[in-house]
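Notebook entry, structure prediction.
Reason for the run: the old model in the group folder had no record of what sequence produced it. Starting over properly, with the input documented here first.
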Amino acid sequence: MPIVPKVIFKTEAELRTFIDKPIDLAVAKVIKKLDHYCTDFIARSPFLCIGTSSGGRSDVSPRGDQPGFVQVLDENTIFIPERPGNNRIDTLTNIIENPSIGVFFMIPGYEECLRVTGRATLVGDQDLLEAAKVNGKIPKLGILVQINEAMLHCAKAVRRCKLWDPASVQDRSQMPTLGKMILEQTSAVDNPPSEALVEEVDNYVEHINKNELY
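New structure, fully documented this time:
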């Protein structure tokens, strides 16, 4: 049965009847270029999420590598190497249609985050790609981002969820393997995947996770 909300907010004015105005510092903290704090944060970050959209379709995709994998080229430009993935290229095709992009940086152990917005271009410049080489392997392309805005994000969300608290680590065995879940999601109800097929897919996933990171 579809849910029919009783209250729907359609304007900022309506929202402001429920949510107070931000404090002056929350408004003023948005900067138009990367300062030394932003640069240091990016240099320490091994993980980010990229938000893109096109044609009414939105996507958020993770990227991860060793700290410093995102190159800060100048105060308005960063370069994100495109490592091997599942070849869906959702982020990349969105960028081709709509270059607007949001990037969210995180650092293990830090409760604060860094938000960056700008316009992205897919590039294959050899100098940039060479600088992103790992284990002798050079990425085929990367995402060049011209920064419009950057802001440091407060710790509330990370603190609420206790993300970096060792006590928050959950037992992975409480859910099935990725292979089993996807196979069941894509199989007919009356034709569940065999244990042998699940094992085969799990072994394949583990193989590419170990051997095809770059």
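Summary: The first strand starts at residue 47 and ends at 54.
The old model has been moved to the deprecated folder.
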